[in-house]
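Review form for a predicted model. The reviewer records the input and the model, then writes brief findings.
Reviewer: anonymous (R2)
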Amino acid sequence: MDVKKLRYFVTVASERSFTAAAARLNMSQPPLSRRIQEIEEQLGVPLFNRDSRPLTLTPAGRLFHEQALQVLQRVDEMAGTMKRFVQAERPRFVLGLIPSGFHDRLPEVIRRYQQLAPDIDFVLSEMSSLEQVLALKEGRIDAGLGRMRVEDAGIQREVLREEEVLAAMPPAQSAEGQAGDPVSLAEVARHRVILYPRDPRPSYADSIVSIFRDVGIQLDRPIEVREVQTALIMVAAGMGACLIPASARRLVHPEVICRPIRPAVTSPVVLSHRRDDTSPQLAMFIRTLAELYGEWGYASPILTDWQ
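Model under review:
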């Protein structure tokens, strides 16, 4: 959808007249009418009640108007952000990360990076592991943190460490096991397993399905949701159980029982970046991770040389 056409539509809706809108836009009325007709043809629905005076929006027009205002506001915000960035001429480091994927240590990583490189703007951008690959190739991000080992010739990926996965069990489990008591995948599978994210795929959800399949368990009617927060709300309501990385433990509702899995299950923390990227921004990020991993006691051979 052409942004210019959205502006035309919003102006007509505001003025409630093609004539007044054309004057405001400093254009003649026939081309303006054609642009609005093109939008309606593309959507397959009329947006204005043309028999009324002044013009009124149809129900579809009101919905489209709300969406158009949001899009135009975002476009204006983007333009302003880019203008401020260009004027400031400050280098940026943009990190892509999976939504709801890293909660425990990421704030400390950002603070340390800003302490080590106060002249570099640190920017977060939420996206899936697959989306990170495309964003890296297009130069929209400088590095990505994910859970999937995505193979691509132009991308270098490093498994920083394997993070423990916990079973988030519903409150009814309190009589059968307390937090800290190990639980088997078979016990987890007695409940409806809640998977996330629902899309895009493949994702962490597919990794969880594979974990159960590796021990011969076929999940019965799993529930798929978009975010880990939704999954944990459903667990707290007794609707099922789910597997979460240990770093997501802070999101857990007090009634949910988090239990270690035996045999142990882990999820990789994967750093992705453009192959042969020698930028100081990326080097500083790896140095930041190396320092903090050493302080946290995380074993990561990939980062050893940077400490």
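Findings: The CA atoms of residues 165 and 265 lie 5 Å apart.
Further findings: The mean pLDDT is 88.
Recommendation: see findings above.
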